[in-house]
Specification:
- It is a single chain.
- This protein has about 600 residues and is an alpha/beta fold.
- The protein is built from 22 helices and 21 strands.
- It folds into 4 domains: about 60 residues, no CATH class; about 220 residues, 2-enoyl-CoA Hydratase, Chain A, domain 1; about 190 residues, 2-enoyl-CoA Hydratase, Chain A, domain 1 (Alpha-Beta Complex); about 40 residues.
- The N and C termini lie far apart (about 75 Å).
- The radius of gyration is 34 Å and the shape is elongated.
- Strands 14, 15, 16, 17, 18, 19, 20 and 21 form an 8-stranded mixed beta sheet that branches. Strands 5-6-7-8-9-11-13 form a 7-stranded mixed beta sheet, sandwiched between helices.
- About 0% of the residues have low confidence.
- β8, α7 and β9 form a beta-alpha-beta unit.
Amino acid sequence: MRVRIAAGATDEEASAIAAALSEHLGDSVEVFVGDDTEPTVVHEREEHATSGQRATAPQSADGSAGPERPTDDLEPTDRERRLREEIEDIHEGGPEKYRAQLPEENKLFVRDRLDLWFGGDDDAFLFEDGTFAAFDDWHPDGVGEPTDDRLPADGLITGGATFEGRDVHFMANDYTVKRGSMAEKGVEKFLRMQQRALKTGQPVLYLMDSSGGRIDQQTGFFANREGIGKYYYNHSMLSGRVPQICVLYGPCIAGAAYTPVFADFTIMVEEMSAMAIASPRMVQMVTGEEISLEELGGPQVHARESGSADLVAEDEEHARELAAQLLSYLPNNADESPPRTDGTAPANSPAGLDAVVPQEPNRGYDMHDVIDRLVDAGSVLELRPDYGSEILTAFARVDGRPIGIVANQPANRAGAIFPDAAEKAAQFIWTCDAFNVPLLYLCDTPGFMAGSGVEKEGILEQGKRMIYATSSATVPKQTVVVRKAYGAGIYAMGGPAYDPESVLALPSGEIAIMGPEAAINAVYARKLAEIDDPEERERKERELREEYREDIDVHRMASEVVIDEIVPPSSLREQLERRFAFYEGLEKDLPSKKHGTVL
């Protein structure tokens, strides 16, 4: 067979082409280069060993042997060894003096942290992207001794990993490199990681330890179309598409503080992490206020007052455990269902449920005691427990199925709904709905709190958001009237008008515009005041209360089919198992529109 290739090809190239074609076609091949009339290379056909002939090596036109074919016993070259040494050097991180400071702050070096999260061996994570980012900036011409101002990986590690059996994207700041600050190449790596998560539909872990943008190198990444501002655009695009979990390992200031608040879930570490829109030094410059970083944006500030921290970890190991728990309730993306596990019995017997709930509407009790008799033992993970504590928001499982619980907490201010509690509940409902986690409402509330203080704090605005989230959630919803369900509280807590799959009630339940005492005072205050005899007035007031209570009792509501069923308390767990199983995979449509205007 004769083959002509383009002019300018070398003898080696011609020989390789001849060998490949001869092996593929099983025939001798002559290769002509350009307009040559004589073949540059002749490759004779190889015969099987049984033919008694030996295959000939590629030959040049002058009869000399072509290049030798490689054998199977070769070892890495010096070129590869040099590359591996460069990678090892990059993996050492920033200057040694900064690595030496990490133990003083009880924090791990970033690559040790990745070992903790993803395995602790050579396969700790599947792959890394951008190892050589900014290499030329601190390694002159890519060769020779590195400079003192080390920028390995430009201070940011990104890649793909396996976490608790799930494929995830991750980023992790290297605090030994300019205090984890962000610059051009690191920003580009961060953006690529986010954009790839949009393609794959896999969760994202942000292991943050950053002082913010690298101010002295801001040209090229701050205001660019593909600069640091694109982080938050990508966060917004990822929001509700894949779970985003952020763990803070240090002071995240200014732009770095937006990643944790954009994430679906934020975990802070005690005595280690903080986040704020500006550093204490900048705050003092702008406002004159002298304040420590802990007071400005430490874990307790964001866990109790701002609500920006969902969970607070004791240390690095605990932070990983919390993230693993969170992810166990969530699917990879909005197109999938949450992962199911083997179901277990509740921690406490459902038979004791009715004894937990006092008959008196104003007597307090801990809603956790109800939940422990309804959900799988050990499955409760409460979020933002110290913020808006009049409402409890938690992930749990019922017969192995993940659910989101929104429950009033009568142990705190009688379970009245305050603005921060409404905001917390709305955010949790919205997140559960985004990731197909069914909702369980446990209602025992006198309604939304009244007064000038809560009006200034936006009770109407936050109450509106909670009602909107409940209205718009398309996941299966089960509502239980545990005891009192007064005022607009029953609306926000998934009442009959809000398209729940079931509204169940315990025999202690009441549904009303307001409680008996308030109602009697509102309607009969003048008539009662006209009764001079105190005993007669008290008797009449008691009579009116009993009449009112009969009118709002759940038996009346069940008789009028306002609620679906009054359930014996000891059977409630079984009812929830059956109903969540029956409505699993239910799809509900919303009116055609671009989006609502409330959240």
